[in-house]
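Translate structure to sequence.
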């Protein structure tokens, strides 16, 4: 009898399981939708941006990436993990029906976020000459980005507050609006400077304005969150009024809780960026030693993997990020209730849902890397760019898995252990960096990154398995099914690319932006259609996503 109950707990068959899974899926839907739309916008803009920068595109993209990598790490330090920490602690106190404590936590967090925003904005502005990696053109780009650090910590904190209530819609919508305003500002300024010449300046000025767009987007995103908070203020007040009011937490204790939870979030939240920063400050010197390329060629090679491919791959990685944000409050609730079955259930659900989305997306992108790269990045370094994108797409599965399982570790208060494992992986990355670049050139940083994150992921998964006695039978079963259908998706998309490259080549230039776009769209529809049909036909989607997909199957007349 006990064995049967244990199996049901692991496989998510009880009513409680279904409820928590539905909550996770609903939250994931909002966060995934907002994140994906934002990432798509963040990739699509590159097409007109590339056209307007013309011959300066690769150099401009390299400059843009170098500024953003440093900014990204400092931004995460400025945010200090406070949004996720607040989401986690708000969910904790809400579970105890102490909504007033959660509000107090949010207000105290605001003081921290405003203070850290000011400090790190000034740091980036005045330290830019010390962080330019020997390229003075990076300085104005970094200083333009410093303005965004003033606003984004407060915006991110407010998103964390909403997420603590499992209310993902405001975060998702504000994220989309933020990205939309940022992209519009980027494109308008690039058009006026580089194409129309209405605003005086060179390509460096245009890149600086493109990075200043982060501030414009952040202001718009914060305004959206303010609207939702004002709209729902009466609901929140009623929750506070009907709280238990039995738990009194001093202000100093609230700050202590925030800081204790925040420090690991800084390190783990910046995990991928830290690896990219290692690449930025080692790639040029090592490539000069092993390849002896001219500086302009090194800038272009750096842009190929760190800029061009990275922007596209982050679309799929953002799926994992959306899941990670959703899992943390749910795991915190299970941990607060000392529900080990619930913890096991959420870990397994999170891993399977991650694979269900990430694996076919990554393999599909690898299959269409050729036309997809030409669509977004043009024909420069064509074969190399496509091969880098294809390889990076596979690597993205490893990066996405780290995002999810590191969030799981934080959700169950295993912060120090997760940081320890990440540091070990970082050391492995640094050790592998030199031989990887020596052997594989432009692919070298990605090879070293893969090895580093494989080590970290293995250590984390081993720790979770030992602590919570997780049985991976269900995960392995679902993984095999997902992998089979993903390989079918890959083959379908790959064959489509070859077939339509040949067929459409008789009527149009398939290497043009329009021709590449047509081939990409056809391959995506056919490859994605195979995956959707296979998962609906075998009921795999029902078992992972829930019974609601039956409606989609009926609409598509799949029996």
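Result:
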């Amino acid at each position: 009898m006990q064995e049967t109950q244990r199996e049901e707990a692991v496989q998510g068959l009880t009513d409680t399981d279904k409820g928590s899974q539905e909550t996770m899926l609903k939250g994931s839907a909002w966060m995934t939708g907002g994140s994906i739309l934002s990432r798509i916008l963040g990739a699509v803009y590159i097409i007109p941006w590339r056209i307007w920068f013309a011959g300066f595109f690769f150099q401009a993209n390299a400059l843009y990436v170098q500024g953003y990598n440093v900014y990204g790490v400092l931004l995460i330090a400025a945010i200090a993990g406070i949004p996720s920490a607040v989401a986690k602690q708000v969910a904790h106190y809400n579970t105890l029906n102490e909504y007033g404590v959660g509000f107090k936590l949010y207000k105290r967090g605001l003081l921290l976020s405003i203070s850290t925003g000011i400090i790190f904005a000034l740091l980036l502005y005045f330290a830019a000459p010390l962080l330019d990696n020997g390229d003075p053109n990076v300085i104005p780009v970094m200083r333009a980005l410093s303005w965004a650090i003033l606003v984004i910590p407060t915006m991110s904190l407010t998103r964390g507050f909403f997420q603590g209530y499992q209310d993902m819609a405001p975060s998702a919508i504000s994220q989309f609006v933020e990205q939309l305003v940022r992209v519009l500002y980027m494109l308008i300024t690039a058009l006026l400077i580089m194409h129309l010449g209405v605003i005086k300046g060179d390509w460096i000025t245009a890149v600086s304005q493109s990075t200043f767009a982060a501030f414009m987007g952040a202001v718009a995103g914060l305004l959206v969150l303010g609207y939702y908070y004002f709209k729902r203020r009466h609901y929140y007040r009623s929750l506070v009024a009907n709280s238990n009011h039995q738990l009194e937490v001093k202000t100093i204790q609230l700050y202590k809780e925030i800081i204790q939870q925040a420090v690991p979030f800084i390190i783990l939240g910046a995990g991928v960026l830290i690896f990219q920063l290692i690449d930025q400050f080692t790639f040029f010197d090592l490539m000069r030693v092993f390849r002896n390329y001219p500086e302009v060629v090194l800038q272009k090679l750096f842009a190929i993997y760190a800029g061009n491919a990275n922007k596209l791959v982050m679309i799929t990685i953002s799926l994992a990020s959306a899941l990670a944000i959703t899992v943390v409050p749910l795991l915190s609730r299970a941990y607060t209730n000392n529900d080990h079955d619930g913890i096991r259930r959420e870990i397994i659900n999170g891993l399977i849902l991650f694979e269900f989305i990430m694996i076919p997306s990554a393999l599909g992108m690898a299959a269409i890397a050729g036309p997809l790269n030409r669509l977004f990045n043009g024909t420069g370094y064509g074969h190399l760019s496509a091969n880098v994108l294809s390889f990076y797409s596979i690597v993205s599965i490893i990066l996405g898995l780290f995002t999810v399982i590191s969030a799981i570790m934080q959700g169950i208060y295993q912060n120090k252990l997760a940081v320890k494992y990440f540091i070990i992986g970082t050391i492995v990355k640094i050790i592998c960096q030199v031989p990887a670049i020596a052997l594989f050139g432009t692919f070298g940083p990605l090879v070293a990154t893969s090895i580093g994150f494989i080590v970290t992921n293995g250590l984390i998964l081993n720790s979770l398995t030992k602590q919570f006695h997780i049985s991976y039978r269900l995960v392995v079963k679902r993984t095999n099914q997902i992998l089979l259908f993903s390989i079918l998706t890959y083959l379908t998309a790959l064959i489509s690319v070859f077939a339509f490259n040949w067929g459409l080549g008789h009527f149009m230039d398939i290497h043009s932006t329009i021709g590449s776009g047509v081939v990409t769209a056809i391959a995506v529809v056919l490859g994605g259609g195979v995956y959707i049909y296979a998962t609906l036909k075998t009921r795999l989607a029902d078992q992972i996503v829930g019974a609601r997909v039956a409606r989609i199957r009926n609409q598509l007349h799949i029996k």
